[in-house]
User: What shape does this take?
Amino acid sequence: MTASPCPATGAWARTRTAGRPRRPRPPARNARPPGPDPRPCGLDDSRPGRCCGGGEEIPPMKIGIIGTGNIGGTLTRRLTALGHEVKVANSRGPQTLRELEQETGATAAEVKDVAHDAELVVVTIPQKAVPALPAQVFDGAAPGLVVVDTGNYYPQRDGRIAGIEDDGLTESGWVAQQLGRPVVKAFNNIQARHLLQNGRPAGTPGRIALPVAGDDEAGKAKVLALIEQLGFDAIDAGPLAESWRQQPGTPAYGTDLDVDGLRAALSAASPERPAELRG
Assistant: This one.
């Protein structure tokens, strides 16, 4: 068993045998000093379910992930490492996901089956692909299903989307309209590599904060807790109508800010879409 540092002196605790003091034991090879663990959260599969946010542990959830690009693949790795039961699907079929399945323990599925029994489904595909999802993609999901949209609209990739450009819908507001159900916007403003590697325990200086926007308060609370478990400070960014504050071209996008910095960035955002992001 690893010895613990003495809180008064920082010296390693002594024990006595037959009345004689023994020499202090050195720290174990992997012992850490007191304070927040600087290592990434959730990447050690010996700690399933551990809450990196310092709060209550999150019970393992059944999670579906639609899309296996940078963010989808990263969330598959992170969430399985935390002990969640993950099913993952892409447009090319489960036979293309065998390596990811073997690496993570996730279950590869068809898109039409990925939400079956799921408590939370992450949609992480290009905007232009959203209307092509099966109409009944969420059939068979658990009651109270939460749908997370990680997407961003890039007209150069997605083509011009009139609902966003002309009708004033936010990017995730348009996604919710296409899916016919509420969504929570999250994970759209962080690079996949940073999502994989840069989670830290609560209280770590400079811990990255991530915004979460949505109208379903219960669903949003579940996503906020999941982000904390992944090792990031989670910020309630308001209703989905305010999710433009975390879209591409805003100060919050891709900047890895801490809590104070993110709140300031969300406040400073302009609803005016930059010219290079218009179709």
Summary: The radius of gyration is 22 Å.
